[in-house]
Every structure is written in C-alpha cells, then in structure tokens.
Amino acid sequence: MPTSAKEPVAAESLQHAERLFENEIRPLLADTCFRCHGPKRQKGKLRLDSREAILRGGESGPALLPGKPAESLLMEAIRHESLEMPPDKKLSDRQVALIEQWIQSGAVWPQTRSTRKTRPDDSFTSEDRALWSLQPIEQVSVPRLKRDDWSRNDVDRFVLAQLRVNQLQPSAAAEPHILLRRLYLDLIGLPPTAEQISRFLADPSEQAYQQVIKELLASPHYGERWARHWLDLVRYAESDGYKADGYRPNAWRYRDYVIAAFNDDKPYDQFVSQQLAGDEVTSPTVEDLAATGYLRLWIYEYNQRDVRTQWQTILNDLTDVTADVFLGLGVSCARCHDHKFDPILQQDYYQLQSYFVAILPRDDLPLLDQEKTRAYQQQQDKWLEATAAVRRQLAELEADTRQQAAEGATNKFPRDIRPMMRKPAEQRDPFESQLVAMADRQVVRELELLDFSKSLKGEAVTQWQQLSEQLKQFDHLRPQQPEMALTVRDVGIEAPATIIPGSGGVEALPGELAVLGGRPAEVTPLPTGSSGRRTALADWITSPDNPFTARVLVNRLWQQHFGQGLVMTPNDFGTLATPPSHPALLDYLAWRFSHEGWSIKQLHQLMTSSATYRQSCWQPASLAAVELDPDNRLLWKANFRRLDAEQIRDSMLVASGELDRSTGGPGEVEHVRRSIYLRVIRNERDPLLAGFDAADGFTSTGRRNVTTTPNQALMLINGNWVLERSMALASSVREARPDDLAARVRLAMLSCFARQPTTAELEEATGFLLGDDNTINEQAWQDYCHVLLNSNELLYID
Question: Residue 599 pLDDT > 70, yes or no?
Fold first, then answer.
C-alpha cells in the first residue's frame, strides 16, 4: 500500500501487480464504473472495462498514462478535481490510493491464464489441483533437532529447522520489560500498569511468564482486543453506509457477542456456525440471534427504490465477505466469469451464494430468552385485547390516509416491483416475498411519518385525537418494548432459484468448490421453517476436511502475534497468494486446531510461549540475515511493529490514568472507554482512529494498511484529544509525586514505555524541567508529558 495518496509505492513484482488488480482494482471498477462506462453504456464515449479501452479513452482523451498517475485524467476524476467520478459519491481515500498504486505500477490488466471449459471436471489443470491451499490438512511430524537448547515448544522446532537450512541463527530473547509490554499489547491490547511491570521485573522466571499469559487470556480485555481483529474481517459498523448512512441502534449486540465468544474461548466451529446459522436451531437463544448479526452487516440504502439491484448487491457482498473471512478466498472475480487465476468457476460463486439466497432480514425478533419472551407476549396480548375496540376505530379513521400514502409510496418503485407489492402475500413466490420485504421497509418508514392531526379533516380530527387519548389510558398494560435483534430468518423452506448469469437459465445449488470435487451439499429443510442451507454451509466450513478453514484462522492469529502471517495474504489463499513460509508449521497448527477442540486460546498460549515469539527485534550480526531474508519470513528476529489505531488511543488513556475499563453496551460517540466501544459510523469515523489506518467498515480487512502521513504527526502534536491526554498524564503524575521531580519522570516513563528512564534520560529530563529558581516548571512538565505520548517508544512494539 502507498504510504499516502501522494506517495505511491510501485508493485514489487508482476505477481504483486496482478494480485492488486484482481483483488482490489477489478472489483472496484466493476462496482463503481461499469454501469456508466461498460459494455452497455459509455458516457463521454469512455469505456473502463478493458485496458485497451482505458488507454484509448473517450471525449477527453486517454483515461490514464501507465506509470504516471499525476498525469492521468482518471486520477483527477476520482479525486473530483475536474470531472467527478463516480458522480454520486466520491471514492474513499483508500480506494483512491489503490487506483493510484495500480496506475503507478503500470496499470497491469492480466489476461486469462488458461481457457476454462464448461464442464467442471475439464476445467482444471494439474497445476490448479496442486495448489498448496487445496491439499488436505495432515498431521505433521515435528522436526527432531540435535543440539537444540533454544526451542521451548514445537513451534520453535519448525522455525529453527528452517533457520538451520538457511544457515541463520535466531535472535536473543527480548528484555523482560519489552517482552511483557509486547505480551500485554498483543493479548489484551493494553500496556501493563506500573504495578504489573514491577511485579514481573521482580520475577521474570518461566513460571511467572506462563502465569502472565494465563492471566491475560482470562482477562475480559482479551476478548475486546481479539474481537477487534474479527470485526475488521466482517466489516463491522453501526451504520448503513452509502450517503444516508443511517444509524443501526442494535448492531452493537453483535460486537458484544464476538467479545464474549473470544473471552469464553468458544470453539471456533461453534463460533462460525452461530454466525452463519444461529437462527436455524430449534430454539434460538439471545446469543444465537446476536451472532447472526454477521448476516446483517452489509451496506444498505434505506431509500433505494431499485430493490432488485440492491438485494443482488447485498447477496454479492455477503458471498464475497464469507469467502474472504472463513475460506481466505477472493471469489468476487468469479461473479462475472470463471476466475482468471484461481481454480474457482463462476458456477462456484453462485453455488456459494445459493446458501444465502433464502435469507430475509428481520428486525422484529426480541432479544429475550424463551421465558421472558413468553412473559412479554402474554402481557402484550392483554394490551391488545383491552385496546382492540379503540385501535379498530383508529384504524378505520386512518385507513384512507394510510391507503393513499401506501399507494403513493408503492408508485415510487420500478414498474416490475409494484405488482409484487400489490399481490396478496400468500400468492407471492419466495423471491417476490424478499423483494417486497425490502420495499416495505421504505413504505413503513413513510407511513410512520404520517401526521393524522394534519391529514384528517373536520370532525374526524377531533375523533382521532379523542381515541388517541383513550389509547394512552391503557399504557400501564403495555409491556416495555424489548430490544430487537438485527438478525435474519429464511423466507421459507423453499429457496429462490440462483441462476448463473449468462448460462441460459442454469440453476446453481449449494455445493463445495468444483476443484475439491464439487459434491452437492446435503440440505435438509428444518422444522423451524428454514431451508437449512446455511446450516449445511456451516457444516462444510467447519468440517476438519475443509482445507481452508483451520489454515486461514491459524494464519490470522500468527499474523497478529508476529507482524505478518505465515501466508502474507490473509484473505487470499489462491494462486496469487504468497505461499506459506513454513508450510509444515502451518499444517501442524491447523491440524491441532481442528482436531483438538478448535480452541483459539490454546493457539495463543502455544504461540506466545515459544522462543520464536520472545525474540528481540535487534540482532547484532544481522547483515547476512537481512541480505538473505530481508522480509524476515524465516523469523530470525521479532518484527518491529507500530501499534494499531485502537492500541494507540487506548495506550494513551492508560498512560494518563483515564481509561474506563467498563465493558459492553451501545457504542458511544466520545468517551474514555476502550476504542472498541466507540460508535462506528462508516462515513464519520473517529479522526484519530481513521488517521492511523483503522478499518473503514466497507470491506473485509484481513491486514490493515500501515501508513505514515503528515496528518498523523499533526494529530499527535496539535490534536485536542492528544493534548487533553497529555494534560491528564501531567496532572495524575503530579498528584502522585508532587515535589519529587525524579519520581515524576520515572512514573511518567513507566506509564508510557513500561520501563524506567536511564541515568542519561533522567538527567536530560531534569535539566529541561527545572526552572531558573530550581523549581519544577509546570508548563514544561506538561510539554514533557506531551512529548512522551508522541514518542516512537509508545507508538511501536519492539
């Protein structure tokens, strides 16, 4: 990724450029450009669906010059500097930067690698079938090494074996205070307190280290940290997206479900199944319903009248994200044609989509257990019975106005949708029922805005007001409205047909990838009225025989602990992915994970207990290692890493003594709780988090960008939020150590860096902080605390 929109980084290789195009650029152009500049329509005589067409350009000339983004009209247009493309909504900064990087790298537009055939069994070469990620996960023998006094567990034996093959040596262990801070930030996302540091430094033994791991994995803050990684993947947000970006008040229930699942070490197979099909169990619990919030994280525009296109966009998004998150496969290229590089057919894409094709969004299911639901319904029935006469009279008065408003709202929809909306519900087929449900959301919204005191006339107004007052007299009977789940149900046991575009009407049914054998899914309609398709999908994804699921999750955890994955493309395990640096280690961990209970905490314990994890970032004799392995893929040292956006914000709150460690609940606009509890509005992100590359909530983010921009420096130096934290740090340390300057400096550095100052640092700080009269300069003290919060030592993990 470029470090900023103005400093593009050229692709390292043709393979890298092709991966960029297939994973990022082609889907972006298809989603935002082709409707106006594609095969059916060419505004300004410009097509953007082939490299030749882009280079030829339209009425304004060539759309781009390969390798010269600054001179390319396309860049001007997407930045809205001259022409404005797309006209309805400017691309995000990330999308603009991706297109700039693509142009800088030569505007690579790969051609089809091989000709696909129509029959799945003829569609793949031996090279396709030999792809490493398609191979079964097998139990791997741990290397036996002679004269090994470095390894602490099996992870190290795999790593050391690779280092020896390449004649490299691992680095020495990191210093205790560095290792402790690394461990805290990795496992709970917060730095250790002064007390925790002092306790560990007094006894940095192996037993004490293992106890710290145990305590951190048991901490409620562990779930908060690791839920953040998962929420990046599923593009979690609490708003609709698009221009209106309406707030979703109950979306946070899914966030809290994820936090609790990590804290409880919910087996990963159950975690996956609940999110994909929690509503399909016989008696869904509150947890099951909250989990299916995963299926409602898609982007939505409440006033989009073209519900047919919007519904297809939602299904496409859900298909793409599910493949990214659970399988590590970028399948979006197969939406329109067989994948150009990976062994994924267009048929595979729509077979995967067919698992979801029956869903119906539901916002009317209470987040209550069975007993409370029963009690609520009983009380609601009492209110309904007591108010039946009054409500009937009100309905009669309101009927004509409602009918006119509903008819007016219906007429705003496309002509092919209106007959479905006017058709009796029992006569609609499943697909029509889905489209009408989407349209009715908008009709209901308009009806809720009706003001009958203004729309009714004469005596009817008085009568309506009197009846409304009578209805209020029964409020004591009406139960308090419970919070409703953001969930789904299937439209019925019969799913709408999924037709493969351009196939002449061929229907795609649920099944595994063709390259894996293409076996059809065993789908059984459920007594709950569901098609059972998503349960079948969950069963396939969580099967130990699935070659992707365990490898993908293990790689995600490894990436967060070591700075990069064994596979460096966490959402792409296809042909253009980087092959694993330690394939045997990846399969060893994946096999253990999938065959020994799917415990994520056990993986954490194994990884963080290793000598590999405990290495220092620095190795004195590193020149040969750098020449041989500049990216440290062989793990001859620890990787120097910048904190992510949430860690930076939370670390500052810990240092200043302000962090509110309360857990759970609705997202808040501004507070001093952990960053994961900030309200996530897609188009109005927190400036500090957005500035330090937090996920945008629009796409699945398997690995965040790490940029260095002037805005980051300006926010840290001049931003009000950081200045407030520096004042709070200065005040809290001053209060704890009012007259002892050296004690102040020690406590401030311990709070920020998890270590005591050196003698030289203490002398330098004292010289800066003492005034001419040999008293503490309090303004200088505040500036000193501000400097600490701006320091690389706080912003990076070493």
Answer: yes
Neighbour-count burial of 328, counting CB atoms closer than 10 A to its CB (0-12 exposed, 13-18 middle, 19+ buried): buried
Buried b (16+ CB within 10 A) or exposed e, 716-738: beebeebeebbebbbbbbbeebe
What are the contacts of 458-461 at 24+ separation with CB within 8 A?
Answer: 460/397
Per-residue pLDDT, averaged over 122-129, amounts to: 82
Rounded Cα–Cα distance for residues 752 and 792 (Å): 11
Report which secondary-structure segment, H or E, holds 342: none
| 8 Å CB contact between 278 and 289 | yes
Q: Contact at 8 Å (CB) between 568 and 582?
A: no
Q: Is the pTM of this model over 0.85?
A: yes
According to DSSP, residue 486 is labeled -
Instruction: Quickly count: other Cβ atoms within 10 Å of residue 788's Cβ.
Output: 22
CA distances from 299 to 34, 89, 234, 244, 315 (A): 20, 14, 12, 11, 11
pLDDT tens, 236-260? 999 999 989 999 999 999 999 999 9
Q: How far apart are CA 783 and CA 280, in angstroms?
A: 58
**C-alpha span between 186 and 568 (Å, rounded):** 19
The DSSP string of 358-383 is TEEEE---BS--HHHHHHHHHHHHHH
Q: Is the peptide bond before 267 cis (omega within 30 degrees of 0)?
A: no
Residue 58 pairs with which residues in a beta bridge? 61
- Residue 660: CB atoms within 10 A of its CB come to 11
Element (H, E) at 796: strand 796-797
* CA nearest neighbour of 192 among 206, 204, 182: 182
Residues 40-96: tens digit of each pLDDT? 788 888 988 888 889 888 888 899 888 898 889 999 899 888 788 888 778 888 888
| C-alpha–C-alpha distance, residues 312 and 498, integer Å | 11
DSSP H/E element including 295: none
CB 48 within 8 A of CB 29: yes
* CB 550 within 8 Å of CB 137: yes
